Amino acid sequence: MEQINKVVLAYSGGLDTSVILRWLQETYQCEVVTYTADLGQGEELEPARVKAESMGIKEIYIDDVKEEFVRDFVFPMFRCNTVYEGEYLLGTSIARPLIAKRLVQIAEQTNAQAIAHGATGKGNDQVRFELGAYALNPDLKVIAPWREWDLSSRESLMAFCERYQIKVDKKHGEKSPYSMDANLLHISYEGAELEDPAVEPNESMWLWSVAPDQAPDQPTYLELGYRHGDPVSLDGKQFSPANLLAELNRLGGENGIGRTDIVENRYVGMKARGCYETPGGAILLKAHRAIESITLDREMTHLKDDLMPRYASLIYNGYWWSPERKALQALIDESQQVVNGTVRLKLYKGNIMVVGRESKQDSLYDANVVTFEDDAGAYDQADAAGFIKLNALRLQMASRKGRKLI
């Protein structure tokens, strides 16, 4: 086994990462540095510090990265109207490159030779963490205990805790049966009865949103202000990126918005069923497309739509730190220089309706051209005849050669 003196561990303080911490110490006889990211998951993180200290850890890093997460990862992703396989807003996927970045930075600061994570060998996160780490520092070793050890069940983890006297927190109330991941963009649910894609999720599972049929009978109206493709204000009030997303989560959740139940194609080859709540993200996607509809040139809009599935796959598959994602981002960001203005939305029982969009400086919409009334010469309808004939020429020629379409 390669000599490893120090490892930076992505650490939550829960059962799995606490076992990993001790396993690293025992297996590699190394010093462990813990890193915990506050991505807005809504949990108190100081217990992770206390737990790490109780296990003899001297170097403990806990970061509040909520603003960086939304500003530098979530918002750039939404500039492309990014959706994976038509439905998934990439809430887990987009958080992993930030965690990988901080793991690498801390490893460099502390002279660690390796980083470690708690992702399993069946999921996408192992790919995302490791591709990010290798891209940012190719000389770091990555340790993935779930691919190395023989602790394959909760019972074996508990036996390991008993053997090494690792304290297991006893939480009050009933434990959720689902594997969950949360940050400011979303919360996900996997496992338990969800492993059968024919079974409807239990209503009690959802934590961020009310059921659409239980949402208020009165709609909620809101106005988002955009500058260079990013939302900067809500109802005329300026918000930081993280605070704006948090407020949209609240408003969306109250109105039953943002639930999805999908079967997705994992990068490692299998299909997996997951349920997601992304209320603020669903609102942002709708609003951004609305402001682009009046500010973006037609061909730029279509080019972005063509590129979006590729961009979404890069994020889902863990290639945020790749040259191709960086190049695509440059094109996307250039397109957003004119995406400025306001969008008015109506939230009602799970629905998001655009009820207005305006851009005083950058709108390409001209009522004088599109009007059904007298356009005072803004558009000569007779010009359309030649336009149609030129575009029909190839179709006519093929038809005359007997190339019938029916």
- Low-pLDDT runs of 5+ residues are none
Main sheet: which strands, in order across?
3-2-1-4-5
**CATH class group of the largest domain:** Alpha Beta
Shape: elongated
Brief account:
This protein is α/β, with parallel strands linked by helices. Helices cover 39% and strands 19% of the residues. A hairpin with a 2-residue loop joins β9 and β10.
Structure explained in plain terms:
With 406 residues, this protein is an alpha/beta fold. It folds into three domains: 6-76 and 83-164, Rossmann fold (3-Layer(aba) Sandwich); 179-296 and 339-358, Argininosuccinate synthetase, chain A, domain 2; 376-400, no CATH class. It has helices at 15-28, 46-54, 66-78, 96-110, 125-136, 154-164, 241-254, 279-295, 298-317, 323-335, 367-370, 383-400; strands at residues 6-10, 31-38, 60-64, 114-116, 141-143, 179-182, 187-190, 220-227, 230-234, 237-238, 259-265, 271-277, 341-348, 351-358. The strands form three sheets. The chain has a five-stranded parallel β-sheet with strand order 3-2-1-4-5, with helices on both faces. α4 crosses α5 (125-136) and α7 (241-254) crosses α8. The protein is elongated.
What topology emerges from the helices and strands here?
Layout: E1 6-10, H1 15-28, E2 31-38, H2 46-54, E3 60-64, H3 66-78, H4 96-110, E4 114-116, H5 125-136, E5 141-143, H6 154-164, E6 179-182, E7 187-190, E8 220-227, E9 230-234, E10 237-238, H7 241-254, E11 259-265, E12 271-277, H8 279-295, H9 298-317, H10 323-335, E13 341-348, E14 351-358, H11 367-370, H12 383-400
Parallel strand pairs: 1-2, 1-4, 2-3, 4-5
Antiparallel strand pairs: 6-7, 7-12, 8-9, 8-13, 9-10, 11-12, 13-14
Helix pairs in contact: 1-6, 3-7, 4-5, 7-8, 9-10
